[in-house]
Amino acid sequence: MTGPDPLRDELRELADSVTPADLYEPSLARSRRIGRREAAAGTTAAVVALALLGSGLWQLPRSGPASVATAAGPAAASPASVPVGSIGTSAPAGDPKTAKVPRPGRPRPAHSTTEPRSTSIADLPGHVFYADAEDDGRLVRLTPGAEPETVFSEPYATAGVSPDGSRVAYVTNGNLMVLDTVGGDPQQAYAGKASATQAPAWSPDGTRLLIDAAEPGVLDVATGIVTPLPGGLDGRHFRWSGDGSTLVYGTAGCGLKVAEANADSGTPVPESGDPDGRACRPVSVDATGDLVTVLLEESPSAAFAGKDSAVAQADTVLDTVTGDIVDLPVPGRIIGAVFDPDGNLLVRSVNGGKRGLSLFAPDFTWLLRAPEPSALKELGLVAYTR
After folding, report:
1. 111: three-class secondary structure by DSSP
2. pLDDT over threshold 70, residue 87
3. How is the chain split into domains, by residue range?
4. How far is residue 144's CA from residue 120's CA, in Å, rounded to a whole number?
5. Hey, which residues does 371 pair with through a beta bridge?
6. Is this structure's pTM higher than 0.85?
7. Which fold has domain 121-385?
8. Which label site among 58, 177, 219, 363 has the fewest CB atoms less than 10 Å from its CB?
C-alpha cells in the first residue's frame, strides 16, 4: 500500500475547484455571427448587381461602334426655366435630351392645358416689344400694369432687343447702333458697315451680337471686335437658343439648320410637310434649341433674300428634331410667336377680330390668355423679355 501523495492530492483539489466550461453555446453564437456576415455580404452583392443591371454598366466593352438611340420629338421643358410672375411655371423633371418622344402629324404638347390659369394682362410678367410694321420707325414696350410706351422713334432697317429688355441694337444706314431702352443717346457699336439681312441677335448674356458685316459674325459689344462664324455655317437669320448652346438659321434652299454654338456645320431641320408654306426664316428659339418659331413662307426665295426685319411675324412653332408643327391650343389665327430666354412662349393671335396674348411655360402649361391693348393693333410683335 502506498503512502499519501501530496502532489496528487493538490491536483485533485485544484480540479474540484474548477467550473466545467460549456463550449456549445459560444460555438453556436459564433456560427450565427458568421452566417449573418455571409448573408449581409450576399445581400450587398445582390444590390450592387441589381444597380449595375439598371444602369447598364454590367455590359462589357464591345468592339465596333456603339449603337445610338434615335431621338425624336422636342423636349417639353427648359433646364433654364424659372417661375414666371404670380402665375408661375411648371417644368417637368428629367434631361430634355433623353425625354424626347415621337409625335406624328400636328402634335399638341404633352403637357399643354386646355384652359389658361389667368385671363388678366396684369399677370403677364416681363416686357413685350412691338415695332411699327409700316416704316420700322418706332419701337414700343408693353409693361403689364402700365400704358404702352415708345422706346424710340427713328428710321431703322432692322432691330433686336436684348434678353433683359434693357437695350436695343438696330441697323440704320449701314451703321450698327445700341440704345438703352430707359433713355440716353444711341452709341455706334461697330465701326464697319452692317447689313440688314441679319437682325442684330443678342447672346443670352447680353454681351455679344450676331450681325452681318462683311460676313456673318459675332460682335463683342464691349470691344467692337467681330469674330466670323465658321465657313460651314452658310446661311442667314441666325438666332441663339436661350441657353446659348445652339444656333438656328435659314438656308438658301429655304430650309432651316441647327448647329451647336461652336460647330463648323449645321444639321438640317426636317421639312414640316405643311402645304401652306416652308420655314425659311427663324424668328425666335426656345431655351435649348429644340423648338423654333417661324413664318411659313409662300415665297421662299424672297423670304431668304429680304432683310431680316424686326417685325417678321412667326405663325408656327416647329420641332427642330422632327420638323413637326406644334399644335397650340390657341383660339383663332396665330399672328406672332416669340420665346423668352427661359423658354416661355408668348403667342399673339386674332379671333373674331379681337387680338389676344397667350403665355405658355416651357412645359406648355397655359399660363395666361388675355386681351391685348387696342393701342398695339397696328404694330408687329418683336420680342418678349424678362
Report:
1. coil
2. no
3. 121-385
4. 9
5. 356
6. no
7. Neuraminidase (2.120.10)
8. 58
